[in-house]
TrEMBL record:
<dbReference type="InterPro" id="IPR014729">
    <property type="entry name" value="Rossmann-like_a/b/a_fold"/>
</dbReference>
<protein>
    <submittedName>
        <fullName>Universal stress protein</fullName>
    </submittedName>
</protein>
<dbReference type="Pfam" id="PF00582">
    <property type="entry name" value="Usp"/>
</dbReference>
<dbReference type="InterPro" id="IPR006015">
    <property type="entry name" value="Universal_stress_UspA"/>
</dbReference>
<comment type="similarity">
    <text>Belongs to the universal stress protein A family.</text>
</comment>
<dbReference type="InterPro" id="IPR006016">
    <property type="entry name" value="UspA"/>
</dbReference>
<feature type="domain" description="UspA">
    <location>
        <begin position="3"/>
        <end position="126"/>
    </location>
</feature>
Amino acid sequence: MYHAVMGVDDNEERAIACAQAVADLPGAGSDARVTIIHSFTDNPTGASAPQIGSVREATEYLEGEGVEVTVTESSGDPAEQILDVAESEDANLIVVAGRKRSPTGKALFGSVTQSVILNADRPVMVAGDTDD
């Protein structure tokens, strides 16, 4: 079974882009398992990760594609948390979202994405924007 760890922030469009990228992988569906991680840097409402719209949307999309999904949450530096979960779960792949940038900023990813790419000890897939 193929296992991916997918970092999801509060943006639903980026979460769906990551979910679509995972569902489009060869052999996805019943042969794939995804751990979605949402790292809280500030949580004044006391919500849990499954209550966050982006996490809920990504989970529903993946489950609709036949992918087994688990959701985990953490607090602290999101990049460190994504890398820690990927290592502890022995994931085959880390999936994070890219962001649209200005022409001069296209060489740079967001700080979380860039940190994951630079510090990962396994493949990292950066998902683009959705067509919607």
